[in-house]
Each structure stands twice: as structure tokens, then as C-alpha cells.
Amino acid sequence: VHDDEDLQKEDNIRCLTTLGHFGFDCLPRQLVNKSVQQGFFFNILCVGETGIGKSTLIDTLFNTNLKDKKSSHFYPNVGLKIQTYELQESNIQLNLTVVKTVGYGDQINKEASYQPIVDYIDAQFESYLQEELKIKRSFVDYHDSRIHVCLYFISPTGHSLKSLDLLTMKNIDSKVNIIPLIAKADTISKNDLQKFKCKIMSELISNGIQIYQFPTDDEATTHVNTSMNGLLPFAVVGSIDEVKVGKRMVRGRQYPWGVLQVENENHCDFVKLRDVLLCTNMEDLKEQTHTWHYERYRCSKLQKMGFTDVGPDNQPVSFQEIYEAKRQDFLNQCQRAEEELKQKFMQRVKEKETAFKEAEKELQDKFEHLKRVQQEETMKLQEERRQLEEEIIDFYKMKTASGTLQTQECTSIRKD
Ligand code: GTP
């Protein structure tokens, strides 16, 4: 470089600085353009009791009015409602999927309330895994429905977490990024709210529940994310109404004593939640979902199927070796099952044969017996017939004899 500069000075050559980019420093722009063209997708799971404010918060977050009719409190089981929306902000397309619990916390026995949630999260991982395992994979048009974040709505009791909250969070914390929220935070006083937040965090820690930690390893977001981690759980208020404050219309809730402004950071943590969720950490949430939660699912699934990276001797085992061994195992199993079936079949055939023979013998005996009885009957009848015939002959003989006697008597009377 020095030599070139010296040469240029010597030759008095005019240097031009380049305008715009060229070479591989354009790569980030190519990525951005491609991503913008493809559009983005984000999947949110809202877990919370019926009427706790799930839909209102989602509407407030995305500036929409997606709420449909209210859910009933009388469902026998917990269900999930899945809604997908195409949103656009300037030239950015967002395919948003919101999965909401229905009937959560309404049953008398709440022990299994978390199960449908766990099943749903696992089902999305399973469908992604199945796509990955296909020979012809098609991730371009694949709708990735894995849940990127779970907004867990805690009731604003000001007291402590419910056992249902602990049970559910414990069962999903290894499957999804949980961000705990204190719902309808406008119903708690400032002092109580602070104590409530501390209580919730200490209960989560003592129960070993892992919630999502905003990443602090990126210089650009370290500062904001560290302070946000200290503010969890966020105390949020949602509203789709616009109220007048001074000369401005703001999203808020009007009360007899004043207005709660949703986007006022002194009133609640809504803006903080929106910033960390949508502006700062959306990509990290997706990455964590793929690299941690999905990876954990995939790993345990493949292990259950018998795949492993190292053998019993701690030596690496290739996928092909395991596949061959599994295949051989399977073939042996099939052969064993086939033989077992054959033997069972032969046994049953023998049993049936014996049963048929016994039945045949029984029938034969019956037939012989009937034949004997019939022969005896015939003989008896023949005997009776013979006797009758003899009687008839005797009768005729007697009749003839009596006729002769009568004739002789008549002749003797006439002579006299
Ligand atoms: P379901 O889908 O029926 O389970 O209800 P949800 O959890 O989606 O609750 P929704 O958003 O429908 O809100 C229920 C009621 O709570 C509505 O009357 C809302 O206006 C009210 N609400 C929602 N958010 C807040 C809040 O932050 N504070 C207060 N005070 N009320 C709220």
C-alpha cells in the first residue's frame, strides 16, 4: 500500500474514492433484501386464564383489532385457539400466528391443564422434524409453526403465583421461551406491584423455573437487555380504546379518577415489553427456539429412536452403522414375530383339528346309537306285525269253523 501511495505521489496521479458499495461488503444488503422479500413470521403463545386480557394485549402490541367473541368459562378441558394474521408495517410483511389458551384455569381439577399446551408445542417440533427428515425437503414454502415465545399472563392478585402457574411453567420451560407478564397491572398499586414482582421472581427461582433471559452478549443491546432482565415480570396493561389526554388521542383506559396511558412508561411496562419483544429480541427468540428448544426435542426424539453419536466404548458411531444395526434388529424382530405367528397358527390348527375330530366322533356315536334304537324299533314292529297276522289267521280259522258248525246244526233240525 505504501509503495502504491508513493508511486501515485511521484506520478501525481489523482485518486478517486468509490461511491456506494462493491464486492462482498454488499452481502448484508443482499440478505436484508431477500428476507424482506420473503417476509417474516412470528409465532406467539398466550397462556392465561379466561378473560385475563390476552387478546387485548396482542391487539395493543400489533395495533390491530383482532379480538373475536369472548370465551366461555365452562369448557370441560383446556383448549387452544390458533389465529394467523398477515400484518404489514411500511414494506415489512409479518405472518403472525397467535395461539391462545381457551378455558385455562376454569376446571375444578387443574392438574392436567398444562398437557394440551405441551402437546401443541411438541406437535410443532415434530412436524418440523418430519420435514427435516424428508428426502425432498421443502423449507421454502414450509410454514414453520414452532412457538417462538410464550407470554404467560399472571393474575394480578398482588399475592403470589398460583400452583397452576408454577405447574404449567415448569412443564413448558424447556420447550419454549417464557416471558412472564402481570396482566391488568392497572389493578395493583405501585408499591404492591414492586413487592409482587419480587415475590414472583423468587418463587420462579425457588421452583427452578427457567424464564427467557434477554441476551446480554451483543454490545448493541447489552445495556437495554440487562435492565429489562431486572424488570421481569413485566406489568402490562392493554387497551384497544383511544382516549383524549390533553390535545392528543392515546391508547389507554379511562377511569373515574383519570386515564391510564398504555404507552406511558410511568404507568406500566407495555412499551418495554413491545420494545424487547418486537424491536430488540424477536430474532433472538426465533434463534433460541431453533438452537435450544427444538434441538433438545430433536435430540431426545432421535435418542428415543435409538440413535446416538457415541457407542458404548465411547467411540463415535456413524449414522449409517446405527441405521444398519437398527435395520438388522428390525428384520430379526420381524422374523421372530413371523415364527411366533406361524407356531401360534399351527397350534390353533391342531386345536381346531382335535376339536373337529371330537365333534365328529360324538356325532358318529350319536348316529350309531340312533341306528341301534331304530333297528330295535323295527324289530319290535315286525314282531308285533307277525303276531297280528297270526291273530288274523286264527280269527279266520275260527270264523270258518263256526260257519261249518252252523250249517250242520241247520241240516239236523230239518231232518228232525
Ligand atoms: P378470552 O379470549 O375470552 O379468554 O379473554 P382474553 O384473555 O383474551 O381477555 P380479553 O382481552 O378479551 O379481555 C377481557 C376483558 O378484560 C375485556 O373487558 C378487556 O377490556 C379487559 N382488559 C383487557 N386488558 C385489560 C387491562 O390491562 N386492564 C384492565 N383493567 N382490563 C383489561
TrEMBL record:
Q: Tell me if DNA-binding is a UniProt keyword of this record.
A: no
* Sample GO molecular function, one term: GTP binding
Q: What's an example GO cellular component term for this entry?
A: cytoskeleton
Q: Spell out the coiled coil positions from the record.
A: 320-391
Span-the-membrane segments of this chain are none
Q: Taxonomically, which superkingdom?
A: Eukaryota
Entry annotated with the keyword Transcription regulation: no
For this UniProt record, give its keywords in alphabetical order, as a comma-separated list: Cell projection, Coiled coil, Cytoplasm, Cytoskeleton, GTP-binding, Nucleotide-binding
Domain named Septin-type G is located at 38-304
Q: Sorted alphabetically, which InterPro entries does this protein's record hold?
A: G_SEPTIN_dom (IPR030379), P-loop_NTPase (IPR027417), Septin (IPR016491)
Gene3D superfamilies documented for this protein? P-loop containing nucleotide triphosphate hydrolases
Quick one: where is this thing mainly located? other
Which Pfam families does this one have?
Answer: Septin
List locations, semicolon-separated: Cell projection; Cytoplasm, Cytoskeleton
Quaternary organization:
Septins polymerize into heterooligomeric protein complexes that form filaments.
What is the stated purpose of this protein? Filament-forming cytoskeletal GTPase.
Similarity comment text for this entry: Belongs to the TRAFAC class TrmE-Era-EngA-EngB-Septin-like GTPase superfamily. Septin GTPase family.
What's the name of the protein? Septin
